[in-house]
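This section describes the prediction task in plain terms. A model, or a person checking by hand, is given the sequence of a single protein chain and must write out its three-dimensional structure as a string of tokens. No templates, partner chains or ligands are provided. The sample shown here is typical of the held-out split.
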Amino acid sequence: MEAGHGPGQYRRPSLSVTLALTIVFSALIAVATILSIPLPAPLYEITWAPAIYLALGALADPVTAFAATGFGSFLGEAFNVSFKGGGSPIYPAGMIWARAPEVLIIALAKRRGTKALTVAMVGATAYETLAFFFSDWAFYVYGLFGYGNPTSVALGFTAASPDFFTLLDLVFIPAALALIQAAGPAFRRLGFA
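The expected answer:
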């Protein structure tokens, strides 16, 4: 049976639709990353992007959501590091490493109800936090990417521990759930289920 021609079936989005969605959401995530709230050192910033990519993980297919989150996060953070000052040149790559896999975690739960989706978003945010923490811990211990001189494991742990403030992104989960509710019908019309 072809997709879209039977009970419970949906049409798959065309390549042009997925490409357009990737481009539009990459731009939206980049802008939401650029429009960040500066935080005192050593935290750097909090961005508006989590509500968008958390919702996108549930609304789009995993490949489209992964690509849009990775590209948008990289471009937005590259702009922040280049033009807003502060931050390490490794931050844009770190955004891909920490953010893009979050949508894959969310995709696992997107058809299992709101409770499972919320738990997946919490798990995705925990993943992002640990991705930042463990990489920064290693960077401090070995003195990589402008993280100072090599230091002990304990001092590296202490220096990287502000990364746990990334858990503040949990406040964006209600907004992401609202976006999913509002945009769900449009995404289904496009062929995303």
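For orientation: The first helix runs from residue 15 to 34.
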